[in-house]
Amino acid sequence: MTDPASTSDPDSGIPRPAVRYARRRFMTVTAAATALAFATNLPGRASAADVSGGGLSGDPFTLGVASGDPLPDAVVIWTRLAPQPYEPLGGMPYNAVTVQWQLAEDEGFRRVVRSGKAAAQPEFSYSVHVDVRGLRPSRYYWYRFRVGGWISPVGRTRTAPAAGARVSHLRFAVASCQSWPDGYYTALSHLSAENADAVLFVGDYIYEYGISASGGLRDTADPVPDQFRTEADTLDRYRLQYALYKSDPDLRAAHQTTPWICTWDDHEVQDNYAGLVSRTDAPIEDFTVRRANAYRAYWEHMPLRTPAPQGPDYLLYRRLTFGRLAEVNVLDTRQYRADQADGDLWKPDNPGRDDPSRPFAGAQQRRWLLDGVRSSTSTWNLLANQVVMSRMDLDASGTATYNMDAWDGYTHEQQLVLDGLAGLRARNPVVVTGDVHAAYAMDMKRDFDDPRSQTIGVELVGTSISSGGNGTDVSVNGQNFLDHNPHLKLVNERRGYIVVDLTPVQLHAHYRAVPYIDSPGAPISTIASFAVEAGHPGLNRV
Ligand SMILES: [Fe+2]
User: Which of 150, 254, 275, 292 to pair with 395, CA 20 to 30 A apart?
Assistant: First the structure.
């Protein structure tokens, strides 16, 4: 892993902004010096006005940089200007600000291949999303931004392989669920060193809940400010939540080293919401506004290619192709679903869950998914999925009990998708999932009632980065799952992520975990590994 923090700019000898940040403090760089360093590589030298700092009250790059949604010839690079991230407008003056950006083939920016300017607008909280085109496939690139005399940390990204290319190896990291007050993002610090081609982040990037002054399980040096006590519902409050989450140096470093492919689950808006149905049954007109606020704030803080949502709807499901080796179908099973059957929780089997009129992914997304996998020419077809798709029976009381918030609560679409994937065995479906704060490895069965029925693919459920605190190896519920779900091959409830290595003949899934997150610095270890042979669905423990 190349560490962009480790060297000086060869053109100027000036130390470049560090990848690693002191906790809860933000890296600042001598303004005039960095302006000079950047200007040496820009077309024409910066004007005096450009290097003045733009009238900003401090370093505007406190939230770091990010990249995402790599294509063979393009990648999105992101930042958001916020010199005072917990103040209204992030402490920015109320006018559009021009941001310069560069993308280079080398860490020292001697070979800048693309550069330009972007407008950071107050209505989008000064976020910048640049879809940098004209790049070469399967390449590392380095990027940075500049405003006035301020220069951003240097991010590293990587483009996807060319369409149709025979790719010998890809590595994805699967992560989800990073409740800030639940503990440190130690797992993300290890993920940054995995050298993944991309992170698949499958939901709960933030949690909407109010945050106490003490910062929960984190040992905060400073009290969390008063404006964080309430649950996020307004646009400004959601923005604050992202600013707090991105104050974490390990999260910023993970974005800085690897492109992310993101989707949301519920907590980016509200726990267990469904479509336009609030968990608290708020009037639909009120929840529509809240969802619009949340979706806007999500877009503002993620390296997404598509334009900002202008209302309560946003087309998030999409497909990314990595040569002939892998295709990633990014799902959104939150926006289009009907309300949960019989409430939100784990409930005994009930007829509501089988009601065919209740959408989950929705007919349009479901057709898009199955048509895409059917026409895919990639060996491995990944589904970046929010909530568990396979049957999970929590049979603690002798009565079949299912999660009404997962695919199990919407069995009509669950079976349609399983049947659809079953007909595409050669396409090697691999579902990667978050939500449950536990690592699972599952064979996906054509008929979960019959362990001998066809295995149609595998589902790899990452645990959480932090949600749930330290966790445990296997809880009582975890043991219940193991006892009553023969397709389930692993339960572990420590914090961590999955590394998925793909070759044309084999998948290897390595489940990584840390022993604690209530203090920093825990080591990472591999708690289990599985192999899947291409063309032969099913998990083999290695
Ligand atoms: Fe979660």
Answer: 275
